[in-house]
Amino acid sequence: MTEMASPRTAATSRIARLLDSDILHSFLRSKVTIAAAFLTLLFFAGAIFAPIVAPHDPFDLAGISILDARLPPAWMEGGDARFLLGTDDQGRDVFSAILYGSRISLAVGFMSVILAATVGILLGLTAGYMGGRIDAFIMRIAEVQLTFPAILIALLIDGAARGIFGNLDREKYVFWILVFSISLSLWVQFARTVRGSTLVERGKEYVQAARLIGIPPFLIMIRHVLPNVLGPALVIATINLALAIITEATLSFLGVGVPPTQPSLGTLIRIGNDFLFSGEWWIAIFPGAALALLVLAVNLLGDWLRDALNPKLR
């Protein structure tokens, strides 16, 4: 009985510590943070369950009629109750397109941040712990990387992809081209932050003790140093998620993102921009508002997490 009860006891103690933690109290005290978390979860739920929640499938060409093109929102004169936020120039439901577009935008943002965090954290750990020429070499690469704007890097990679694969084959790999392009501009922040934290941690007693008993440097970095530098990296990841979504939307707006047949939020805004001054404002305004709300909510969560994990602000 004791062996069976011990895992439950450990789980109960973890939950109790979480409920009594400063982070949870900080979260519950901030109404803005609660609202941002609710809005973020709403976007994630809508994106994940888009095939269930969306009233129409904007990617199903058989279910789209050109006769339904440019219909205003349902509450306006000439609107159709089937299309809550109206339709675009192809007759696609704008509300459904936003749900599916959020799916693509969030997927690109998440994969970009995961790849950038993996590369940046590993390079930052190596630079901070090893020091010397390795540190200087990695940091010089990071400084060179900072001189190139994210949009310029993405445009260069997209141009190279068009030359290698061609326009048609490029569309098959456009998702990963976007992920690679965006992550290439985000890894530097992770590397510089983790390097600074590693420089502090490597001089502490627990690292010295691990060296004395003969633990290899790689294991020291992964087992001992890494858990103590993940806090700042987590904050950067949250803020960079919003930046990655904005970058993807910008690239799609410029025409180097995902194709119009499978639009993200940026593609929807680009399509709607062509009809903005002809009276069909809803085609661009609603996807733009969704993008703004998503980025704002993620940024607010990132700001709260930065303050909650900073012991000087408690």
Automatic annotation (TrEMBL):
The keyword DNA-binding does not apply. Residues 102-302 form the ABC transmembrane type-1 domain. InterPro entries: BP-dependent_transpt_permease, MetI-like, MetI-like_sf, OppC_N. This is ABC transporter permease. Keywords: Cell membrane, Membrane, Transmembrane, Transmembrane helix, Transport. PANTHER family: ABC TRANSPORTER PERMEASE PROTEIN (PTHR43386:SF26), OLIGOPEPTIDE TRANSPORT SYSTEM PERMEASE PROTEIN APPC (PTHR43386). Its main location: membrane. It is a multi-pass membrane protein. Belongs to the binding-protein-dependent transport system permease family. It holds the Pfam family BPD_transp_1. GO terms for cellular component: plasma membrane. GO terms for biological process: transmembrane transport. SUPFAM superfamilies: MetI-like (SSF161098). It is found in: Cell membrane.
